[in-house]
Design a protein that fits this description.
Length: 168
Amino acid sequence: MSEDSPAANPYGTPTTSGPRPIGRAQGATNRMVRTLLRIPGLSGVVGKRLATLHVVGRKSGNTYDIPVAYTAHGQTLLIGTAQRPWVKNLASGTPLTITRGGRPEQFDPIVHTEADEVLRLFEIIARDNKTNADYNGIDFDAEGNPNKADIYQTWQQGGVVIELRPVR
C-alpha cells in the first residue's frame, strides 16, 4: 500500500470512492455463505465463484473459515480483497486448504501487494466478476474495460490480490 494521496493517481481521477467498507451484517452473511457452501449438491451451485479459505492463525493456531469470491485464471485462482487481518496469515510455501464445490484442495498462496501486479491481476478479476469489482470500488468505461484509476485507488486503499497456485 502507498502513502500517496489520491491526487497522485497516475491514471487520472477515480470514478468511485473506493472499496466498500465492511458492513455490520458481514459476519452474519459470512456465516450463511459458509453454511450454504457446506451443503452437498448446493455447494457446487452456490460456490461457482465462491470458495472457503481455511486460514490457520499464525499466532493462535486456530483455523478460520473465510468465504471469498474467486476468479479462475489458467491453473490459478485469484482473489481480490482489501488487506484484511486474515491475509497476514498467508505465506508462500505454506499450503492453504480451500474448499470449493465441496472438495478440499491445497494451494500455495502468493499475496501481491505491489501496484503493477495488483493492477494487472485486479483487471483480470474485474473483467470476470463485475460484482466483485463493484465491492472493490472498480467501475467500467463505456467500452466495458475496468477503470485503471479505480483499480489504482483500490490498491492505494489497501487492495491486494491473492494468487493461489495448486500444490502438486
